Amino acid sequence: MALDMGVGGGADEVERISPEMLKNTPSNIRKLADEIEQFEGRQKYLARTRSPSDGGDVRWYFCKVPLAVNELAASVPKTEIVGKGDYFRFGMRDSLAIEASFLQREDELLSSWWKEYAECSDGPKGQPSITSKSSEQLSSVGPESYELFTTEEERVGVPVKGGLYEVDLVNRHCFPVYWNGENRRVLRGHWFARKGGLDWLPLREDVSEQLEYAYRSQVWHRRTFQPSGLFAARVDVQGSTSGLHALFTGEDDTWEAWLSVDASGVYSVISLRRNGIKLRRGYAPSQSQKPTPDEQRQQKEVEMDDYCSQVPVRHLVFMVHGIGQRLEKSNLVDDVGTFRHVTATVAERHLTSHQLGTQRVLYIPCQWRKGLTLSGEAAVEKITLDGVRGLRTMLSATVHDVLYYMSPIHCQDIIDSVSNQLNKLYLKFLKRNPGYDGKVSIYAHSLGSVLSYDILCHQETLYSPFPMEWMYTEQKSKDPSTSVSNNLSSGSSIVNIGDKISDNIGVESHVNNPELVEEATCNEVGPSVSSDEDSNETFGNLNSVQFDDNCMNNDPNSMRNEFVTCDENTSGADIPHNDKDETIKSLIEEIDLLKARIKEFEVEYADRVNARKSSPVVNQSDPESVQLGTRDSLKNYTPQIRYTKLEFKVDTFFAVGSPLGVFLSLRNVRLGIGKGKEYWEEDNINEEMPACRQMFNIFHPFDPVAYRIEPLVCKEYMHMRPVIIPYHRGGKRLYIGFQEFREGFASRSQAFVDHLSSVKVKVLTICESRSNDEQAEESGNTQERTERSYGSVMIERLTGTENGRIDHVLQDKTFRHPYLSAIGSHTNYWRDSDTALFILKHLYRDIPDEPISCNDQQLNDSSNDDNSSTKKWSDPREIADEELPLTFADSVSIKNFSQRARKSMRS
Predict the structure, then answer these.
(1) Which of 34, 163, 202, 747 measures 20 to 30 Å from 330, CA to CA?
(2) Sequence-separated (6 or more) residues with CB below 8 Å from residue 421
(3) What would the 3-class secondary structure string for 321-359 be?
(4) DSSP string covering 28-77, please?
């Protein structure tokens, strides 16, 4: 049972609440329906008469307009009857959950409510302030426990609207769970009024309580003749309107009531029945045949809330925004809400009832830029010119986020903000859904896709150099002023080895222990000299001084010649007995030489450190000082970036409108596992692989910010067009079909010409001997096996299928100019139905359209053997339409067909 103990419930009450009881699931709803009828407080709200105006159905509402800061919920609405369209009704199951929590502590909640209402009724003597029990407790706690206290308050709220919001019954607030938003007034609808229309509107709680007291007293039995001539019982209602009263008429079990205002005390029966406001106890649906747009929206919201209460969440999607969230009109919460409504509309049309009933997707916004203040923003604001101020403000709120991330000073703050926000949202979700074992995906837009990618690529190694660090390294290697002697290179390598062995011990400790350095040299001098990763890791652990990595990699061959490693020592079995003494003697001499060189390096290093301490200003005439100053300044701009490990595994990573391709190109990065240098034929490339099961790049063809990713994974995909995302209303647009037909016709014509030119080769092949045929077939099979490149393997790793695709392009509207489409293409993904359909198809890919029966399962199992025998004839490109490039220009399919035809002719 969902309970709301509020802030004032006490620690004992909070401990008794089970997380399972907070879940608004169908089983809990059934428990609520059974237990709510057994509450003693519920019995008094049931209908006691047979009057058509009597009922016991209670509904809860929330205000469309949020409350102001420090505004009490009892101060609104100002009128006794809420305005039409001002309040929206919760779904039936959400109302049931809230009502059950209300009945659990009805006396306490009513007492708190009337106290708050009395504060509002005294008249505003100043700015109203919340003086409830919860505010007193919050003011008494310290700043450290305030955050924990607030988290505990959110945890015990009543979950509504699919778990995105919770209701605080103490303060009558409805507030968002996963983002900071305004409080909305919550109203309990027990008495309703209808004035002139067909819709029953809820009355304010104070008016409803007075009418409820009159109803339980059955005031219609004490009817008298009113000045208007009506035989009715008059009940004066205390409210904001003077002269407000209710008139009850009827017999024993049939009564009617009207609400009216009579300042003069004279009212006629005719005018009462014509202009009076009809009252009703209990909720009743609207009797309108043609609902208004507000009513249609209300009905759709109720249906969605009821659906969310019945279907559990099986897929969680975090929506990471990009640039522009500092703009006044930009709001990620509104964008995600729009995307949520678009996906719901598309799902009704393209998903089956079985799919919708099996899984529900929850979209949660990740607002990493909100609340993040960077040190450079104040300086930028001071130097901004006054001319075209609006344009400059817009650029500062959008483009500057990219510059901040490319800066080594602010990169760490941005990465921490995204990682911490993702983990915080996931832990919040787990508190409300304990035992969750579903999937988690990331939908990242614009710059958010670059941030999410970098975080996913560093889930194994949480420390990494600044993403643009290779630029500084290349500059230092080309600059002769930063080069040092080979002796210093060798010495620094030895010191780094000692630092690596000791696990975060300072350089001085290794220098003072030559034996430790000697042992490290014997064990690991070879790998550390030739490995860039080990050297980078060693630099991150230095506490006293940081050496240039070029010193380590300056001349590896010379290092191997000077030092003798344990791996290079020959075994005693291969050396004659007479030569053993000479070998031992030479090794001892080599060790003595190493110790002498280490001492030389110690003296040289100590002299340089003393010189730097004694002269804080660099002497321009001293070349060594210039070298050290240059190296130190470069190191200041190449820091180590610390990444936070995510608390969840990412299933699918959707990069939408992403500039990730150009970022990777500038970093000279390719997507791989570190074994593609021969494949890319480049020496200075780096390879990364995001920690996710699948990755997709979605973009509009005219989006000026988006770039492709596939050419950075597999160079064979460079000339292949992206996969066209299907139109949500079916098929492809007119110009797309015409373009593909033209290209397909040209491709088929060329394939036919190539086929005719290969006839001679086929004739010669048939005339050859059978032995030669077998050898050719074996060589052909070997060639087919070796045709798969390193890039295609990486494509399979990123997509899950051998011929999967990463880049997917949307279809632009027909007869629209490209430059007009480019204006709003980058921000239109949140409202695009084609994007929503593509996301849904992949999130529901593992759920069949219809439930699989036992007979179908047996047939599938029996046909597995038959399918395996003909598996070599199946085309792996026919897995799914969405994975195929929707074009006839498919050279791979033509090549596969020709190979199969050749085999059939030979057999």
Answers:
(1) 163
(2) 366, 367, 368
(3) CCCCCCCCCCCHHHHHHHHHHHHHHHHHHHCCHHHHHHC
(4) HHHHHHHHHTT-HHHHTTS--S--TT-----EEEEESSPPPTT--GGG--
What is d(CA 372, CA 291) in angstroms, rounded to the nearest whole number?
A: 45
* Paired strand residues for 670: 687
Q: Which residues contact 179 (CB under 8 A, 6 or more apart)?
A: 333, 365, 367
d(CA 863, CA 348) in angstroms, rounded, equals 33
Distance CA 333, CA 364 (A): 9
Structure-block tokens of residue 620: 């321009």
Q: CA 248, CA 255: separation in Å to the nearest integer?
A: 7
DSSP-assigned letter for residue 674: S
Q: What is the pLDDT of residues 120-142, one digit of tens each?
A: 875 444 444 444 444 444 344 44
Mean pLDDT over 717-722 rounds to: 91
The token duo for 614 is 């004694």
Beta bridge partners of 249: 256
Q: Is 368 helix (H, G, I), strand (E, B) or coil?
A: coil
User: Are the C-beta atoms of residues 623 and 399 closer than 8 Å to each other?
Assistant: no
Single-letter amino acid, residue 589:
E
Side chain identity at residue 652, one-letter code:
T
- Averaged confidence pLDDT in the chain: 74
Give CA angle at 768 (765, 774), nearest 5°. Answer: 85
Express each pLDDT in 183-217 by its tens digit: 999 999 999 998 777 788 999 999 999 999 999 88
Is residue 101 within 8 A of residue 2, CB to CB? The reply is yes
Q: What is the secondary structure of 102-135 as a DSSP string? A: HHHTHHHHHHHHHHHHHHHHT--SSS----SHHH
User: What tens digit of pLDDT does each residue of 614-671 get?
Assistant: 554 444 445 444 454 555 544 444 578 899 999 999 999 999 999 999 999 999 999 9
Mean pLDDT in residue range 301-326: 91
Higher pLDDT, 473 or 312: 312
| Angstrom distance (rounded) from CA 461 to CA 503 | 17
Tokens in use for 828? 């239109």
pLDDT the model gives residue 764: 61
E-strand stretches of 206-350: 224-225, 231-236, 244-250, 255-261, 277-281, 313-320
How far apart, in Å, do the first and last CA atoms of the chain sit?
71
Q: Which residues are catalytic?
A: 446
Residue 479 — left, alpha, or beta (φ > 0 → left; ψ -120 to 50 → alpha)?
A: beta
- Among 26-30, 258-262, 473-477, 577-581, top mean pLDDT goes to 258-262
| Both tokens assigned to 495 | 């010191």
Mean pLDDT of 480-501: 39
Residue 372 three-state SS: coil
- Is the pLDDT score of 282 beyond 70? yes
Contacts of 823 (CB under 8 A, 6+ apart): none
In this prediction, residue 869 has a pLDDT band, given cuts at 50, 70 and 90, of very low
On whether the pTM is more than 0.85, the answer is: no
The rounded distance, in Å, linking the Cα atoms of 111 and 132 is: 11
> How buried is residue 79: exposed, middle or buried, by Cβ count under 10 Å (0-12/13-18/19+)?
middle
- How deeply is 402 buried, as exposed, middle or buried, from its count of CB atoms within 10 A (0-12, 13-18, 19+)? middle
Signed CA dihedral, 720, 721, 727, 728: sign only: positive
- Cα(99)–Cα(40) distance, rounded to whole angstroms? 13
User: Does residue 628 contact residue 615 with C-beta atoms inside 8 Å?
Assistant: no
Residue 562 is which amino acid? E
CA distance 63 to 40: 29
What span, in angstroms and rounded, lies between the C-alpha atoms of 566 and 557? 16
pLDDT at 539: 38
Cis peptide upstream of residue 77 (ω within 30 degrees of 0) = yes
**Cβ neighbours for 574, distance < 8 A, ≥ 6 positions apart:** none
pLDDT given for residue 197 in this prediction: 72
